[in-house]
Every structure is written in C-alpha cells, then in structure tokens.
Amino acid sequence: MARPPFRGNVVVITGASDGIGAEMALQLATQGARIVLAARDEAKLQAVAARCRQLGGQTLVVPTDVAVQAQCETLMERAVAEFGRIDTLVNNAGISMWARFDELTTLEPFERMMRVNYMGSVYCTWYALPHLKKSRGRIVGVSSLTGRAGVPTRSGYAATKHAMAGFFDSLRIELADEGVTVTMVYPGFVSTAIRERAMGPDGTALESSPVHEARVMTPEECARIIIAAMAGRRREVVMTARAKVGQWIKLIAPGVVDRIARRAIERGE
User: Where are the domains of the chain?
Assistant: First the structure.
C-alpha cells in the first residue's frame, strides 16, 4: 500500500477555521499530517483541531490575523517550535466583496481585502520560506477564478487575487533551483461562509450570497483537488470546465469572455 504523501508532513494552513481550509485540514489528518491551524477565531480552530485529532492528525492551533505582519511571524515561529520544520504552507485566508465600484461608499474594504488576501500571503510566505527551503517544501496559493479574469461587482476582490497570482508566479521562477514548488489554485464558487461574510458597498457583511447554491462546489471536493495538486507539485489548477475553456478564448477574443462573465454574474452562476 502506497504511503500517504503527507504522512508526517508539517502543513501550515491559514483560514483554517471553516470552509476550504478546515476541510483540507480534515483530509490531511487522515493521512497522518501534522497540521498547524491558523485563523482569527480560536474557538472554531479548536473545534477543527479536535476533529483532526480524531482522524489521526497532530495539530497546533495558532490564532492569527494574517493582515498583521507580526502575527504571521509568530505563526511560523510556533509551527517550527512545535514540530521542528515546515513542509507545506497553504495560503488560504481571504475575505470577499460584492459591489460595483461606482456604488462604493468607502474604499476601506479594498484596503482591507488587500491586507488580508494579498499581504497576508506575502507575510506568511516571507516567514515560512527559510524553513521551506530546508525541507524543499511546497507553497500553495488559494486564489479564485477572479484572479484570471475581470468580473463585474468583484473589482476589489479580483484585484487581490490578480496580485496573488503575480506574486506567486514570479516566486515560482525565483525558487526553481531551491527545490520549493509553488502551486496556484483557482476555484470557482465554493459553498463556504466567505460568500455570506462578503462585504457590500458600505463595507458591512451582506449575510447572503447572490450565487445559486446548486451551482457551487462543495468544500470537500475543492479540498480534495487542492491536496492532489499539492501532492503532485502541480504548477496550477483551474477548477471549472467553463474557466478552462474561457482562458483560451480570452487569448483570441477577450471581449467574449467579458460578456460571459457579465452574464454569469447576472444569472448568479
């Protein structure tokens, strides 16, 4: 029987209190991974940790706001102090927004999203990288299809995901001779709380999602795809058939992709 690829590996996951991050932790626990769980909500992290331990994983809970650089440094220090190494960093923490740019009443949500989605990934990667070089490890950036094309009502969120893509695609080249691989993941809509917690034009939570539930991926399936990509050290994963076709259409007829994106948002797809 083949050895699980992450048995004994130390995996740091941000945004691990629910959704994709929590589900990744649970699936990695079944492989016998040592999982460092990071997010702001300690109670939720502890609940995820308890479930991971029941499945055979070792855990460390580190309450972390990735928008705060010092907390990201502490996260990596505690991971190494507890487990002696870092093998994989999953940059999954993120916040979202649904609003036309010309309907915003404040730009503060744009700044907040950039601090969490982009700078949070930069901070965590900065402090984890020396340890990942030693272990010839893996970096994963959980982006979005909005990181590959513009989407109406998603301008601020898309900007952060494009920034992530530019950063990690550049870093992949820089680290090519260091043994550290970088995997970018581009999910479509996933059934997680990030959609309900998404900010509206005034920066407050919408508490509902405009996307039809029947058209979203489950966190379980999304996590399974990400973990398989991590194991194979894949360069990137685009998760929906429509997006895979769309990226080729964009090269020759970008206006067509713009119209498809507009119709998809209008239909809640």
Answer: 10-243
